[in-house]
């Protein structure tokens, strides 16, 4: 006879089968209240709205986000992510909301929910101080104009006939190209351009007036209506109490502008600021460690997988060789960035949730395994076929001959290309920034934006990558020297 506990378990399973999961799941507001935190996604490379130094976030959006969370009775937890992947991460539940200077547009409103507008912005044109003839959007025809990727500046200019749009990951890189006379102008949000010019790009100036009327809003995933209502209530209260005005004055008011002007008059920006470089050294440590960790783990896992794939591909049986060949062709034929996005953003739609770091390791491992398999396969095929025949004639099985005769020689021959693959893997790890991992390149991106000092930050990043790859080349040289006499004999 079925026990009471068994009946309860069966009833629970039946309910799960009969009713959609969404009806049993928590609402967005319930999840926030129960967890005690509001997870806010932001691309902290856009001062003065959002920037980060180490683990300390600052900016207008940051202060406002903290105030909203307080009104909800929870704490705000900001999660840094590349703007390319910030909206897919919102949709798959990584964030509860996105505050990252997001303009409310009809296209975005079709796939996301938005709070009431909290900031009125607009696009402004920036040119070199000696430039003439560019004062309004119509003057940009026939010009090359820099924008930050996936922003309303890009969408606006792409609709204008005769304008060549140059896209950059961060606005400071666009301004640097303008300063170096590679493009004719930069278009971006007015407060951000003014901040960057005050900070470091004083050879540039803004011209004309804001030519768009944009409203920033907090973005939410579909189905978060209850959370949107509470956030709107919190926003209204923050404005009524005057706290909003205080935050606005802090970042955009006359006092903030006077402080920036005084700083600009006292200091002259340096092409390379060694004092800044020394001060920022500790902040690179976590990014360096994450980059090294991702590369080493992925390489350690990719080597045995690649060897297995290579052994499968050299088999005469199509049933064994074909799946390995298909895997290699698919992985090598698709970009690593797409593979990272698929694992982290697409799999959750099939209820497969993998943490960001694990997703990065899986993508890097599966990608490098395909290339490593081809390196091993080439090494195996480079061994004279007579050696396998001689081993078999001595009574060895195929696996014994492969293990004792072929593979030891293969390993010695593939050390140089494997070293190159390890170096490439270490550099390719920078792509995981799209899923919110702050590795070395992303750390550089954040600091270069915060301090508007790309010429100081990016050479440091290059040196750190060189220091990371140097041990790999030394190990490879040591192994080549050690096995040199063996390969010649």
Question: Topology, pairings included?
Answer:
Elements: H1 4-18, H2 21-24, H3 28-35, E1 37-42, E2 45-46, E3 50-53, E4 56-58, H4 60-72, E5 75-80, H5 86-91, E6 97-98, H6 106-109, E7 113-114, E8 119-121, E9 123-128, E10 144-148, H7 152-158, E11 164-168, H8 171-179, E12 185-189, H9 190-199, E13 204-207, E14 214-216, E15 219-220, H10 225-240, H11 243-252, H12 254-266, H13 274-280, H14 285-313, H15 318-332, H16 336-346, H17 356-381, H18 385-393, H19 398-413, H20 415-428, H21 440-451, H22 454-488
What does this entry look like structurally?
There is one protein chain. With 489 residues, the protein is an alpha/beta fold. It folds into three domains: 4-118 and 216-267, D-Maltodextrin-Binding Protein, domain 2 (3-Layer(aba) Sandwich); 123-212, 3-Layer(aba) Sandwich (D-Maltodextrin-Binding Protein, domain 2), CATH 3.40.190; 279-488, MetI-like (MetI-like fold), CATH 1.10.3720. It is built from 22 helices and 15 strands. The protein has helices at residues 4-18, 21-24, 28-35, 60-72, 86-91, 106-109, 152-158, 171-179, 190-199, 225-240, 243-252, 254-266, 274-280, 285-313, 318-332, 336-346, 356-381, 385-393, 398-413, 415-428, 440-451, 454-488, and strands at residues 37-42, 45-46, 50-53, 56-58, 75-80, 97-98, 113-114, 119-121, 123-128, 144-148, 164-168, 185-189, 204-207, 214-216, 219-220. A five-stranded mixed beta sheet has the order 11-10-12-9-13, with helices on both faces. Strands 5-1-6 form a three-stranded parallel beta sheet. A hairpin with a 2-residue loop joins strand 3 and strand 4. Helix 14 packs antiparallel against helix 21. The model is unreliable at 11-24 and 485-489 (pLDDT under 50).
């Amino acid at each position: 006879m079925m026990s009471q506990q068994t009946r309860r378990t069966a009833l629970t399973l039946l309910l799960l089968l009969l009713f959609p999961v969404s009806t049993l799941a928590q609402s967005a507001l319930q999840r926030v209240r129960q967890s005690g935190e509001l997870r806010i996604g932001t691309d902290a490379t856009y001062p003065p709205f959002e920037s980060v130094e180490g683990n300390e976030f600052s900016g207008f959006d940051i202060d406002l986000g903290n105030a909203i969370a307080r009104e909800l009775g929870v704490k705000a937890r900001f999660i840094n992510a590349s703007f390319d992947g910030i909206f897919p991460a919102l949709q798959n539940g990584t964030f509860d909301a996105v505050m990252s200077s997001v303009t409310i547009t009809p296209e975005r409103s079709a796939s996301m929910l938005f709070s009431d507008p909290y900031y009125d912005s607009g696009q402004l044109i920036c040119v070199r101080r000696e430039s003439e003839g560019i004062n309004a959007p119509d003057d940009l025809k026939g010009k090359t104009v820099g924008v930050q990727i996936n922003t309303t500046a890009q969408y606006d200019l792409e609709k204008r006939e005769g304008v060549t749009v140059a896209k950059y990951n961060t606005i400071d890189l666009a301004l640097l190209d303008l300063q170096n006379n590679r493009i004719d102008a930069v278009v971006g949000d007015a407060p951000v351009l003014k901040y960057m010019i005050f900070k470091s790009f004083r050879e540039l100036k803004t011209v004309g007036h804001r030519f768009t009327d944009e409203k920033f809003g907090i973005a939410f995933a579909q189905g978060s209506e209850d959370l949107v209502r509470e956030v709107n209530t919190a926003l209204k209260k923050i404005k009524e109490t005057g706290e909003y005005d205080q935050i606005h004055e802090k970042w955009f008011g006359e006092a903030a502008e006077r402080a920036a002007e005084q700083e600009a008059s006292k200091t002259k920006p340096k092409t390379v600021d060694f004092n800044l470089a020394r001060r920022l050294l500790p902040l690179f440590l976590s990014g360096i460690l994450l980059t090294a960790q991702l590369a080493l783990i992925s390489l350690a896992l990719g080597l045995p997988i690649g060897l297995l794939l290579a052994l499968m591909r050299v088999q005469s049986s199509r049933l064994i060789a074909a799946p390995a060949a298909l895997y290699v062709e698919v992985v090598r034929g698709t970009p690593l960035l797409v593979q990272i996005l698929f694992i982290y953003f697409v799999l959750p739609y099939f209820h497969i949730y993998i943490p960001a770091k694990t997703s990065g390791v899986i993508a890097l491992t599966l990608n490098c395994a395909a290339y490593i398999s081809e390196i091993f396969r080439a090494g195996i095929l480079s061994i004279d076929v007579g050696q396998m025949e001689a081993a078999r004639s001595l009574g060895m099985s195929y696996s014994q001959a492969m293990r004792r005769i072929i593979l030891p020689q293969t390993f010695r021959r593939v050390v140089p290309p494997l070293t190159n693959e390890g170096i490439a893997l270490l550099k390719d790890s920078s792509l995981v920034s799209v899923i919110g991992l702050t590795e070395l390149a992303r750390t550089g991106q954040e600091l270069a934006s915060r301090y508007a000092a790309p010429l100081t930050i990016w050479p440091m990043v290059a040196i750190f990558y060189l220091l990371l790859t140097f041990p790999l080349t030394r190990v490879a040289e040591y192994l080549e020297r050690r096995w040199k006499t063996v390969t010649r004999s």
